[in-house]
Amino acid sequence: MRHLKKIIFSIVFLVIQLLSAQSNHEFNCYSVLVGKDCTVDGSVMFAHNEDDYGDQIVNMYKVPRINHKADEVVILKNGGRIPQVPTTCSYIWLNMPGMNFSDSYLNEYGVTIASNSCPSKEKTASLKNGGIGYWLRRIMAERAKTSREAVQIAGKLIEEFGYNHSGRTYCIADPNEAWVLSVVMGKNWIAQRVPDDKIMVLPNYYTIQNIDLKDTINFLSSPNLIKIAIKKGWYSPNEDGEFDFRQVYGRKTSLEHPNNIQRKWGGFKLLAKGKFELDDNFPFLITPSKKISVSDLTRVLRYHYEGTSLENKDFSKTIHEQKNGTICTQSTQYGFIAQLNSKMPKDIGNVLWYSSTHPCANPFVPIFYSINKFPDDFHYGDYKSAIENHFSIEPSEIRQNMATHAFFSITEKNFKIDENYYGEIDRIKKEIGILEKKMFNKHAGFLDKMKKLSKEKPAKAIKIASKYSRKNLDLLKTFHK
């Protein structure tokens, strides 16, 4: 029976792959959230590949705390206005000019935010002043002290303005816990906490399934989530039984698309206790096979299904062009692993391990939240002009004049590697392995020294951590000489 099931699944899988109308632009991003009891050092970890098609560039800024005037407002992209708070948080900002949903943040409290496209069934929505989209994550980063608070902030804004995109899932982590916030076009949303002893893997479909809205410790939601689903005919309590958010609100082509199924399975294969098959009904959460390290998560973000039946066998094509959508893919612009440790002072306890362009061909290097300024060649202009001009400058325009930008330099080298990927990658993997092993060992010792220094001489600790972080970014830039 199992064999017959596999044959049927394979046929359906192939048909969907050939006929699915889902746009490649909906396969944007990949995320993993890891509870603190699952990690080797007790950190909450958040791994993310930012995937975006087209000609892109990534700027890195450190934004300071800012005091605002009493009458200041935030003006949303489509004209909505939100009263500004007296003081906004400091944060690291990974900025992609012109993009609505591609920026990532790590703020002074360790609140880390990124998102994945997750298409919904919803096609129409009532929006106030054009709704909210781009600014949602930025406001969370500017105001939230915890991931739970970030969800609450976002929920109020979504219910007031309405969300102006088909659907999206925001992963939000802090040094104590992580949350998954799934948003549907309009004013519906659901959020679920990732337990400390579990892992959540997110491709480009909703992963939240059965919900318990009475459990306000682990679930938060818009008030009419289930009522609206019933009204639209998407859910019948009598016929369908328990409410499954993923099935009720998720777009079928997204839920069934091989690219999503394969990437979900890939994360499970590398991290989960037990074995999963491609035709399984994947759960929202998994138990890890062992304590998870930063190194384990770099392997996930670099994964092309090596050693499995899904691995590319057509050597005439680069591994990033194969038909089986990979986790590290042609459209990956950067990858990061946020290592958020509540046992450490926040200036050194919150670390962003960052890799530019294709993680498979570049090392991950550690950047402390406390970095006071990024190297000049890792950004274009300053953070003030970046937000003012975010939607007025096309990425292609910037790249024309940014031959010295680190992102441009790394990207060009990665495209060159792809031309002879199979001839180059073994050497590159070996070099990365040697470098990262040294870096992980060095970083552990550096943290021990910095922990003591941060308590005794915090200003000096920040200065040293900043220099250390900039040096690591220079190492990333010059890795391919």
Account of the 3D structure:
The structure is a single chain. The protein is an alpha+beta fold. It has one domain (2-477): Penicillin V Acylase, Chain A (4-Layer Sandwich). The chain has helices at residues 2-19, 134-143, 147-161, 225-231, 237-240, 245-249, 252-256, 258-271, 294-301, 346-349, 383-388, 395-400, 406-419, 421-456, 458-477, and strands at 30-34, 44-51, 59-63, 66-67, 73-75, 81-83, 87-88, 91-95, 104-107, 112-117, 163-173, 178-186, 188-194, 199-202, 219-221, 332-340, 350-356, 365-368. The strands form 4 sheets. An 8-stranded antiparallel β-sheet has the order 3-8-9-10-11-12-13-15, covered by helices on one side. Strands 14-1-2-16-17-18 form a 6-stranded antiparallel β-sheet. Strand 9 (104-107) and strand 10 form a beta hairpin. Helix 2 (134-143) crosses helix 3. The radius of gyration is 22 Å and the shape is globular. The N and C termini lie far apart (55 Å). Residues 4-23 have low confidence and may be disordered.
- CATH fold title: Penicillin V Acylase, Chain A
Assign the structural class, choosing from mainly alpha, mainly beta, alpha/beta, alpha+beta, or little secondary structure. alpha+beta
* CA gyration radius, whole angstroms: 22 Å
The number of distinct structural domains comes to: 1
Helical percent range? 25-40%
Biggest sheet architecture: 8 strands, antiparallel
Q: What's the CATH architecture name?
A: 4-Layer Sandwich
Q: What is the number of strand segments?
A: 18
Beta-strand percentage? 15-25%
pLDDT average, as an integer?
92
- Uncertain ranges: 4-23
Number of helices: 15
User: What is the CATH superfamily classification?
Assistant: Penicillin V Acylase, Chain A
Distance between the first and last residues' Cα: 55 Å
